Amino acid sequence: MMLIVHHLHSFILETLITPSELSSAIQFLTETGQRSTDHGQEFVILSGILGISALIDSIHNAKPPGATEGAVIGPFFSEDTRDVGSNGDSLGSIASEGKGFYMYVHGRVTDTQGNPIAGAIIDTWETDGTGLYDNQYEEAERDGPECRGRLRSDEEGKYAFRGVVPVSYPIYVDGTAGKLLERLGRHPFRPAHLHLQVEAPGYETLITQLYFKDDVYVTSDVIFDVKSSLVSDLKPITDPSLSAKRGFVDPNKVHMELERDLVLATPGEGEAARKKFQEELTRLATKGIGA
Ligand SMILES: [Fe+2]
Prior knowledge:
binds fe (ii) ion; six-stranded mixed sheet; metal-binding; 15 strands; 2 domains; catechol 1,2-dioxygenase activity; alpha/beta; Intradiol_dOase_C; oxidoreductase
């Protein structure tokens, strides 16, 4: 409490906000608190666009060198998913035909020493080609899990699945957070991303998102959740025989390939990394955050 009051008073002393500005601020927060819709809680969206959620996630999910970095889970994870096999050469698909531009995702699940992790459970979810998650559709328009799936890595730690190239989408902007973005001249978009959750016994669960290099929003994510280590290059594959082997319904269509290894930390490695990171942050905070 002492620290909150200290920082709030510093803010007031630095800005000399007026009584009418205080009223506006109270009004803004009141409206934010009163707004809770099917889209969720407005304070959650506000926390996102101010970078608070991403910052807290970064601090408490810091990873050791070599491990795949994390990202926030976001509001669209669902247990209602499709099973897409348990094999590194799996031809399973998380998306139905016609849901977007073909994408093939593959790689290995390993530990930080590069040893394969077999039987890791990978949950993945993404938008379809229109920028919507299946659970954003009305019940009547929704035909089962779509653009999401669960699979397992094989004996060599390999995983593979077909999906679609996800697209960038705006967060909900019909509340106070949207008004604030508009006043700040900020766009409301998240860059396109593939969500992943990877679980394996003896390792920390990895929750992350993979982004794409050529995305126009990759350097200005509205919720500040992109880490450069999570940005990949999508490679166009024009060889119909490879497309056929990978199980695409129309092998004459070009598909994009995303190759990405997923590296898990043990609880011990994770704990050491978080301790080190938090000590560094404390050191910076006592020197002033700009130091
Ligand atoms: Fe998302």
